[in-house]
Amino acid sequence: MTKAPKPHSKPLALPAPVDHERITDPEAIGGERDLDRSLRPQRLEEFVGQESLREQLRIAVEAAMQRGEPLDHILLHGPPGLGKTTLASILAAEMDVPIVQTSGPVLERAADLAGLLTNLDHRAVLFIDEIHRMNPVVEEYLYPAIEDFRLDIMIDRGPSARSVRIDLKRFTLIGATTRTGLLSAPLRGRFGLSARLDYYSTKELTQIIRRSAQILKVPIDAAGAKELAARSRGTPRVGNRLLRRVRDYAETRAQGKITEEVARAGLKLLEVDARGLDDMDRRMLEAIVVKYGGGPVGLSTIAVVVGEEPGTLEDVYEPYLIQEGFLKRTARGREATDLAFTHLGLPPPDRKGGGAGAAGSASGSAKEPEEGSEPPQKTLF
Fold first, then answer.
1. Is residue 337 annotated as a catalytic residue, yes or no?
2. Cβ neighbours, 10 Å, residue 229
3. Beta strands at 74-77 and 193-196: parallel, antiparallel or unpaired
4. What local confidence, expressed as pLDDT, does residue 161 receive?
5. Residues with Cβ < 8 Å from 191, sequence gap 6 or more?
6. How many helices (DSSP H) and strands (DSSP E) are in the chain?
7. Model confidence at 18: pLDDT above 90
8. Which of 36, 84, 226, 259 is catalytic?
9. Is 10 one of the annotated active-site residues of the chain?
10. 96 is catalytic
11. Which residues contact 319 (CB under 8 A, 6 or more apart)?
């Protein structure tokens, strides 16, 4: 007699987690790089924001042009999406020289670097994005290239090994990084100018969004642009992405023009709230506030609750939450502030030494919601 097969005798394959696009991700998504390129300003006078840095670069360009020399090597650092690549392209245009763009992970071998350097024109710009991820061996070859404009290459191995020196044309290296701490001290010290890009104000982002809307031929009024800017997390790339998504909403669900009401309705559909927080931001806050009473709680524990890698939470989600006063780091772990409780529609806890709101309050706006603001966000847990 044949035995019937046991039910579930073969382990069931669990579906792989689906990667979803994060609307507020400051990194470029999909084919956005080509579209971002069309929205980039071409000259320093068109670049909005970063006033002090802009003036420093303008002076450096004028001085280099007067002397007929290349620009000094420049390191641009700061959060993603703030315009490091855009500034590199602008500097090349201002100097009227070609620019060669690459990234640190692409330069795997010394031969890759040698091929780029030997083909550079005089005063040309070599832009290396994510320079902190460059192979350490390749980085060693880069030192004499940017300091003495020469390249020493070893040929053969063992007793027959010999070094060949290649003279290079004088060029400008512009490096971009989001993790300055991961740069080696010798490389960091070889840049003549180190400049940090900071987050943009709502006023500056409003200008950027209105300029992008004009290029994309999107009808938008001042109130609509300001509403988008206020939720763009201080990042032009996020603002331009929200503009394109709300444009689709306006064309299909409104009269085609982005007003304040249309912008709010479109962003509500995209689950981006009045403070620029998206679904994962709120899940992270709710994990601390609802499940652990506001913390402190370890990062690895939060990662398990929300189903995300600890490194991703620390590098991608935490910086904005800390900057906006929703979260703080302590020696014992992450702790939600009173502002986080209020934003989620919950009463702040009665903390030691002064009652509700005595500690962790990062902003006075935690006490009373602003007039006309959206209602508190509902918790997910």
1. no
2. 27
3. parallel
4. 67
5. 72, 73, 74, 75, 173, 175
6. 15, 11
7. no
8. 84
9. no
10. no
11. 79
Please check whether residue 168 is in contact with residue 147, taking contact to mean a CB–CB distance below 8 angstroms: no
Average pLDDT of span 163-177: 87
Q: Both tokens of residue 242?
A: 């929200």
pTM of the prediction?
0.76
How many residues in total does the chain contain? 381
Q: Which of 210, 226, 233, 237 is catalytic?
A: 237
DSSP letters for 299-328: HHHHHHHHTS-HHHIIIIIHHHHHHTTSEE
DSSP letters for 104-125:
GGG--SHHHHHHHHHTPPTT-E
Nearest by Cα to 306 from 287, 290, 289: 287
Catalytic hit among 85, 172, 177, 342 = 85
Residue 60: per-residue pLDDT = 92
Residue of 36, 129, 273, 281 with catalytic role: 129
- Per DSSP, 30 falls in state T
pLDDT tens digits, residue range 228-282?
A: 999 898 889 889 999 989 999 888 888 888 998 999 998 988 888 888 888 888 8
Which residue out of 178, 206, 337, 342 is catalytically annotated?
Answer: 178
Identity at 111, one-letter amino acid code: A
User: What's the confidence (pLDDT) of residue 160?
Assistant: 66
* 37 has catalytic annotation: no
pLDDT tens digit sequence for 122-149 = 989 999 999 998 888 888 888 888 888 8
Asked which of 220-229, 281-290, 369-378 is least confident by mean pLDDT, the reply is 369-378
Please indicate whether residue 129 is annotated as part of the active site. yes
- Dist. CA 94–CA 2, nearest whole Å: 82
Q: What is the DSSP string of 185-245?
A: HHHHTT-SEEEEPPPPPHHHHHHHHHHHHHHHT--B-HHHHHHHHHTSTT-HHHHHHHHHH
